[in-house]
Amino acid sequence: MKKGYFGDFGGQFIPELLMPPLIELEEAMESILPTEEFQTRFTNMLKENVGRPSAITYCPNLSKDLGLDLWLKREDLNHSGAHKINNTLGQGLLAKMMGKDVLLAETGAGMHGVATTVAAAMLDMKAVIYMGATDIVRQAPNVNRMRLMGAEIVSVESGTKTLKDAINEALRRWLSDQENTHYCFGTAAGPHPFPTLVRQFQQIISKEARQQFMDRNEGALPDVVVACVGGGSNAIGMFHNFIPDTSVKLVGVEAAGTGEPGCDSSAPLDHGTDGILHGTLSKLLQTEDGQIMPSHSVAPGLDYPGVGPEHAHLHATGRGTYVTINDSQAINAFKVLSRREGIIPALESSHAVAYAIENRDALKGKSVLVCLSGRGDKDLGILDQIL
Amino acid sequence: MNPMQIKIEEANKQGKVGLIPFLPAGFPNREQFWKELAELDAAGASVIEIGMPFSDPVADGPVVEKASLKCLEDGINLEWILTELKKRKGQFKAALLLMGYLNPVYQYGLDTFAADCEAAGVSGLIIADMPHEESQFVKDALTPHGISLVPLVGLNTTRERMKLYAQGAQGFCYFVSVLGTTGQRESLPARIKEKLAEAKEVFDIPIALGFGIKHPDQLKEFEGLMDAAVFGSALITHIQSGKSSDSFMEPWK
Ligand SMILES: Cc1ncc(COP(=O)(O)O)c(C=O)c1O
Q1: What pLDDT digit, counting tens, does each position of A76-87 carry?
Q2: Which of A7, B41, B60, B92 is the most buried (most CB within 10 A)?
């Protein structure tokens, strides 16, 4: 297989001026990641700062309601509130060891921006965060957090003013600031080596979850593993160590938006076609002319017209099953999990929880392990408007 | 020899740098665009670079981005560009180059695109988001139709990478003057000279300097190190202020 590809998907479709920093990053991955110094420092940070291993939680009330065994992998319990921190500490430490002093990032829901800012603060680096103007309004609590921790926030006014445009602007910034700046990409998409690098840092989710589930279930594996898919980092982290377990069904949940016919969705695997955006050949929401279509989801972290190339590959080969959940189903799951288990999930993660709720009949008697990628405090403002 | 190279060398023989103006297709509107092209052609452009608008132009600065997005809103697409160019085949003295991003070309279909480019009299292509590593399948489609993929290199391109781009390259090499996006700049980085000299050694086709260029005075210090100049944002701004392409070209003549 060609370097940087997952089957037919992946690659490095990026201006030549960005190739030197990508090559530098790839070389650093190979030379620095395996070192004992990196591994020891990273493992310690995950333990002392993030709170890993994160818990696995059985949901007794919802399990009873739904007639299935519902388990949650609690990435929401991580410091800074989502799975994103696993990746930013990994990339941040790598960048620091490469001699960089600025972490540049894009963010949709703000979780990746917060996580990057935390990493920068911990590692005594500077954080520069690009965020769409729409998302700045939608996710104000996270913007405040980032400011408090010292990030420079750049509001992106172009295009759809969401994640896609924040990525465009961050890439432009990286073009001009590449000497001391590492682009801490937030999801398992983008040009090679990001999909592999991000997966490497996120696969700890399934490494822990697989063992924890077996410990609690006399060595049995879950029947179904579920995660929401924006760019795909929490999902690939949740899937990775289950991929060889062919009895385990892997379900990625994309956002259907309002779910009305003709409305924008954020579901390129379900509704998209092959195309190239942000450095990778994957599935895309696009017009026949190859223009990128606006996406929509009530969950800002899923509001992206592309998806990581490894998911496109899992989709094409059938190893992964990808489905959609719409805004109102996600909001319902947000409320149900809060009320029945006392856990407020992020709107992104609510899409994954909603899969179990909406498919309860088909899942009767099965064990379902859901990645709760983040917590929902950041979303209370959005919900205030809707509820 | 590729027409782009022939045209630039013709200018050089007359003691001038080759002129490569850039305009997004359909800018400032469908009709006026062809008038601007005719003026640029008459004013002595060696190569005319026509932008294929894309919704997410990562390598473009604000001026080009805005102009291209306006063209997209007006419904400009590859089909329009290639059909209209075909109607006017043979009308331009300048060589024609299309510049854009991979996805629209990919959706059009590479082989059809290459054939339609040939039929429309296009001799070169720039894909801003396609480094050497991903370029083979595009070259395979273009070569049978005599269309060259113009290599882009810059201040951070090592000599080894320049050599990769130089292999089999035709037309000209596009040297990006800045680490950044397109757009006018008051001054150009000092390091350009030494990198330009390196590019001159590695490539045996003309070298064009682009990004940030707005006036011929800026080029004096690069004499002998470059063969052509590309200008886009400055020309777009000029046209947006109601002036003509012809008057923009005046100081370059
Ligand atoms: C809580 C949460 N879950 C999921 C996502 C989606 O990202 P990914 O698909 O990369 O896991 C985000 C992105 O912001 C998020 O904040």
Answers
A1: 999 999 999 999
A2: B60
